[in-house]
Design a protein that fits this description.
- The chain has twelve helices and 45 strands.
- Strands 4-3-2-6-8-10-12-14-18-20-24-23-22 form a 13-stranded mixed beta sheet, with no helix packed on it. A twelve-stranded mixed beta sheet has the order 1-5-7-9-11-13-17-16-15-19-21-25, with no helix packed on it. Strands 27, 29, 30, 31, 33, 34, 43, 44 and 45 form a nine-stranded mixed beta sheet that branches.
Length: 700
């Protein structure tokens, strides 16, 4: 090593230069310039200003600054703890052959601005923690060799502020499989357009001196092009993946960037790509014997003579709407799938919880849209998916919506038909009922107390004509009774022979059913008879027998509280009811209706009522069934729909109130009923008992 004293002043410098003016004695070993005793930091290597053709100056931290006679092969040893090395040497020392910089074992950064013309510069990275080499190349004319003997992966950045044009000398990079390097070639500031060849051993056409890989095992190679019309001719590597960014010239710069893939020697080539009108193609090539080539922002793809048939598709987005949502059971729901940008063709498949909707398995697109119009028979939530098939130009896509059926109308052509429809919804399986309660369809009094009995016995409440209208059971009712109840089951007939003809009993008995008449001398006695059949429950709900709404509202509450319904003679207590209450003095009594109804008949009972029958139905619901998981609605202008509906709302694991509405009033949903509904959770399921003649569409 030929080391001169640290620079201390002009006189010392002059003296030293004179004393070493002659070249040193030639030898075969490289000159070693050892700076390991210096503090780690930034070391700048430049020509010595007073004699740049013979000496190199190294400026380091803490006054660790020296100048050296540059002859033959020179090796610079830096401290081990991590340094920044700035190489800025554009003058050629006359006798210098090569310059090697050993960065030590720390985390070093090498900023190579200019290399020595005609002299090979070597950077040897021995670090075990990973280093960075920035080949800035503002005027680098000499060859540069960057090798690694370390055990950590390094990063090599080639280009200064997005330009590699200053790298005039060749660049050779080498690393091994134990520490593969990440190499980035950044020419993104170029505006003129380049034609580059990229392969396993080189990148040419960007840096004037070329970039070579010898014995390389890279982690990845990234090449960034500028805003001109560039061409990248690529041969996939068996050693490392490539990442290519064409930049975004776009209009008016045409024709844009071209990716030309050389697929000779590759096996199983496959292309996956998408296209955007603003940035061109993006995607990747994959192979079974080469690493992937990942690309973006190329306007033209040239697969090459051995390319497979590829499908280049435009990404699409599918949106799905549902109307109405939520919907009423039985109501037609319209699903509209819209694909954008509008494809040139293709179909949309609509599925419900994974099952194709009938008639909607392949709906052709029209102006980018497809429609499906199913209906649903009952309350439920449906996961609807619309899937666009795609085509040769447009990629597939899908969308999903949750359709809620939160209102179900159950009705028939008349009151008897509605009771049958409710029975079928309540007991869809044949033979599922344990009993049937049968009441007359044209008068309410005997039937009012029958709701809790039907629930307790596990059967529906069906209707037939009164004795003054028919001596036999209605044929439709009989058919439903035979469907829902097996022979040997019990049929409870409400009311005496003047309510329902004895011929009904005879018919049912002949069919193998056990018939039980729940009948008293009048409706009040019939209600007492039913209470006794229920086992004399500990809670009694009293309602007027002169009208039906209060008693109907009481059915779900009576079931919830395991009670029976007894009838009053308006605001006067019926003797039959009074006698029963006297015989059971410990029972809890609740009067459903105000002072002009049951509350007037039994002032000692707990009274629940509103300003009218509708308000009373809301008051009962609020008291007994707050936060109900479901609700039922029936007209308050007749009794039959609510009678069977109240049983439905209290059976089969359901328990919700029966609320009364007035379809002839405005608003049809009275304020107290609307107020109760507003307290329920959003999309609480509801049932409407009665057809459009009873409750027109739009009331609920």
């Amino acid at each position: 090593m030929r080391l001169l004293a640290p620079l201390a002043g002009a006189s010392l410098v002059a003296t030293v230069l004179v004393s070493l003016a002659l070249p040193p004695t030639a030898d075969s070993a490289p000159d070693l310039w050892n700076l390991t005793s210096c503090q780690p930091g930034t070391f700048t290597i430049t020509p010595y200003p007073l004699d740049p053709t013979s000496y190199i100056e190294i400026t380091g931290p803490s006054s660790c600054t020296y100048f050296f006679y540059a002859s033959g092969d020179v090796v610079v040893e830096l401290p081990n703890d991590g340094n920044v090395v700035v190489l800025d040497d554009s003058t050629t020392p006359t006798n210098l052959t090569s310059l090697t910089i050993n960065g030590g074992s720390g985390r070093n950064t090498f900023d190579v601005d200019t290399t020595i013309p005609g002299v090979t510069t070597y950077i040897d990275r021995a670090s075990s923690v990973g280093e960075t080499v920035n080949i800035l190349g503002t005027s680098a004319t000499g060859p540069l060799s960057v090798s690694s003997t370390g055990t950590a992966a390094d990063t090599v950045n080639i280009g200064n502020a997005g330009s590699v044009q200053g790298v005039q000398g060749s660049v050779t990079l080498s690393s091994d499989a134990t520490a593969p390097d990440t190499v980035v070639v950044d020419d993104s500031a170029d505006t003129t357009g380049r034609s580059a060849t990229i392969g396993d051993t080189l990148v040419s056409g960007l840096a004037p001196g070329g970039i070579n890989f010898t014995g390389s095992q890279l982690d990845s190679l990234t090449v960034k092009f500028g805003s001109g019309s560039d061409t990248a001719s690529v041969t996939p590597s068996p050693s490392f993946p490539m990442i290519l960014d064409g930049g975004q010239p776009g209009p008016p710069v045409m024709p844009g960037d071209t990716l030309n893939m050389n697929l000779a020697g590759t096996t199983s080539p496959a292309l996956a790509t998408t296209f955007s009108s603003s940035s061109g193609y993006a995607g990747f090539w994959t192979f079974s014997n080469r690493y992937a080539v990942i690309f973006s922002d190329f306007e033209t793809l040239v697969p090459g003579p051995l390319a497979p048939t590829v499908s280049i598709t435009t990404p699409t987005t599918t949106t799905l709407s549902a109307s109405p949502n939520p919907a009423v059971a039985g109501q037609e729901v319209t699903y509209v799938a819209t694909v954008s940008p509008a494809p040139s063709g293709g179909t949309v498949a609509f599925t419900d919880d994974g099952t194709t909707i009938a008639g909607c398995g392949a709906v052709p697109l029209s102006a980018g849209s497809a429609t499906c119009d199913p209906s649903y028979p009952s309350i439920d939530t449906h996961a609807i998916v619309a899937s666009f098939s795609g085509n040769s130009l447009d990629a597939p896509s899908n969308a999903q919506v949750s359709e809620v059926i939160d209102l179900q109308a159950i009705y028939g052509q008349d009151p008897i038909g509605t009771a049958i429809a409710i029975s079928q919804a309540e007991y869809p399986a044949s033979g599922a009922a344990k009993a049937v309660v049968l009441a007359r369809s044209d008068f309410f009094s005997d039937a009012l107390a029958g709701g809790p009995l039907a629930v307790a016995e596990g059967g529906p409440l069906l209707l037939t004509e009164g004795a003054d209208q028919s001596a036999s059971i209605d044929p439709s009712t009989l058919a439903e009774l035979q469907r829902v109840l097996q022979p040997g089951g019990t049929v409870y007939v409400l009311g005496g022979d003047l309510a329902i003809s004895p011929g009904v009993d005879a018919t049912l008995s002949a069919l193998g059913y056990h018939v039980v008449r729940e009948a008293g001398a009048n409706e009040f006695a019939t209600a007492v008879d039913i209470a006794e059949a229920l086992g004399n429950p500990g809670t009694v709900f009293e309602a007027t027998g002169l009208d039906y709404p209060d008693a109907l509202s009481a059915v779900p509450a009576a079931v919830a509280d395991h009670g029976a319904i007894l009838l009053t003679d308006g605001p006067t207590q019926a003797p039959e009811t009074a006698a029963y209450l006297a015989a059971h003095p410990g029972e809890l009594r609740l009067a459903i209706g105000g002072p002009l109804a049951a509350a007037g008949a039994d002032p000692g009972a707990v009274a629940l009522f509103g300003n009218d029958a509708y308000g009373t139905s809301a008051a009962v619901a609020s008291y007994f069934l707050p936060n109900a998981p479901l609700y039922g609605v029936a007209t308050g202008l007749s009794y039959s729909d609510a009678l069977a509906g109240a049983v439905f709302m209290s059976s089969g694991g359901r328990l919700g109130p029966i609320l009364l509405v007035d379809p002839d009033a405005s608003p049809s949903v009275p304020g107290p009923v609307a107020g109760y509904l507003s307290t329920l959770a959003k999309q609480t399921p509801g049932y409407v008992f009665g057809g459009p003649l009873a409750i027109p569409s739009g009331v609920i």
